[in-house]
Amino acid sequence: MLVQKYHCYISVMHKLLNGQNMIPLFTKLQEENYDNLAGNARDHSVSKGIVILCKDDQSSVKRYKCAPFSLFPSPITKDGFQLLTFLQPHINKLIHDVSQDDEFMSSVFQSVIKVDDFTKKLYNIYKASKTSVKQQLQLGIFRSDYMFDCVIEKNRTETNNPKQIEVNTIAASFIGLGSRINSVHCKVLKDAKMKPLTTQMPKNEALTKVAHGLVAAWETYGNSDAIVVFLVEENEANFFDQRALEYAIHEINESIIVKRKTFTELLKSIVLSSDRKITMNDEEVAVVYFRTGYTPNDYTNEQFWDVRLKLEKSCAILCPSVGYQLAGCKKMQEVLAQPNVLEKFIDDEDVVQKMRSTFAGLYALDMNSDGDNAVQMARTNPDHYVLKPQREGGGNNVYGEDIVTLLSEIGNDERRCAYILMEKICPKPLDNIFVTASGHQKVNAISEFGTYGVILTRGTEIIENYSAGHLLRSKSHEHNDGGVAAGVAVLDSPLLV
């Protein structure tokens, strides 16, 4: 029977909580049976539907297991949480505005599309569809991800400031499961005789707020007989996260019909009419919500690109449009961090300053002297940087000596333009316990915090724009990259301090 004494976790929490008479509770926590805590938490998570499909199960019957999660919530600063929640609607609008600026989009991607075929295909669809859909209704469900960079100042004080990792503008996952994990951590804290800490866990309304965005889009489309399509991967393991969103839509408006379809199924069934309506087996489609289509591997059939173009040319509301997807690329992140660029799209100097404070150092690898200098920086101090391609989904970034190897191969030709260089963010590791379907283990963990945002637009008109809850994921500090779906990270909850 495993009994762990989490001195690091306890001492850090005690310090962060400013000694709020919590010592007796911490003493009891040290004596807790973590086997029982973890087992009860696992049962509670399954009862709440925090589950994923078993990838290796070859049976015809769907089998599932609990999604991995941390036993205890992880502390993040209250000021940081409030700042990122405040900024999200401004990020939503920024993504929309840059996607509407044809000249700016062209200037951002001209070097990338020469060497990155996937981005080139997306950009070609953007150009081919742009004229006909200038006033198109668009829905964005975004997630901006951050880590809290830990810096020890000269006076030995510690600061933990949020630094942006990326903005996910397509298939931002764990809206369903991530919003439910809060209940698991509340139960753990109560069982561990630490109930007062539950007041410092912010309510997470991601599921309800994102569902509201999809319902608002369907209602704005204006045909009560039209359907909503979730475009999904074959053999999707994160099935229940998506189902949770579908059921949340029905709770708001039970008349909305949601259908899950793959690219293969759309290829066989969709028709684009002369008045730009999309029908699928004679049913008109109001909204297409992408949970696939963000990697080259999602386009296994070249005809899937024809499906994507057909959707972009239609009057169906796409979530996201290809313009929104491109606006979330790493190259766009690097360009927006350059001096005087945010000011082109944001008039409020205070918002610009706050947003820029979250940017880590970002460097282009274009074929010029600045690009040469960035390559040299990365090769000289590879552990200080991350090399990022124009890809979503986790597991794509390059770290450490692998940066040196890659840049030694491509450092002097245009292939390097497919990447950007970012300063490595260094959050403070904290002890926690990770719970999986098969057991639990102590982990020295770092956390990644994301804020969801929803925006619904028609041309320059903003119909809806709001922050829509949050997601916290944690992983061992030994892992550089990878998310929950990849089996590296676990679901977590923020404890505001």
How would you sum up this structure, described in words?
- With 497 residues, this protein is an alpha+beta fold.
- Helices cover 37% and strands 26% of the residues.
- The chain has helices at residues 7-16, 23-30, 34-47, 78-100, 102-109, 117-130, 175-191, 206-221, 239-252, 263-269, 303-313, 322-327, 330-336, 349-356, 369-380, 401-410; strands spanning 51-53, 64-66, 69-70, 74-76, 137-152, 158-168, 227-231, 258-261, 270-272, 278-280, 283-290, 317-319, 362-364, 385-389, 398-399, 419-423, 430-436, 439-458, 461-476, 490-492, 494-496.
- Strands 3, 5, 6, 17, 18, 19 and 20 form a seven-stranded antiparallel β-sheet that branches. Strands 7, 8, 9, 10, 11 and 12 form a six-stranded mixed β-sheet that branches. Strands 13-16-14-15 form a four-stranded antiparallel β-sheet, sandwiched between helices.
- The protein is globular.
Overall helicity: 25-40%
Strand content: 25-35%
Mean pLDDT: 89
The biggest beta sheet, please? 7 strands, antiparallel
Number of helices: 16
Low-confidence stretches: 1-12, 17-28
User: Which structural class do the helices and strands define?
Assistant: alpha+beta
What characteristic shape results from the CA principal axes? Answer: globular
Please count the beta strands (DSSP E, at least 2 residues each).
Answer: 21
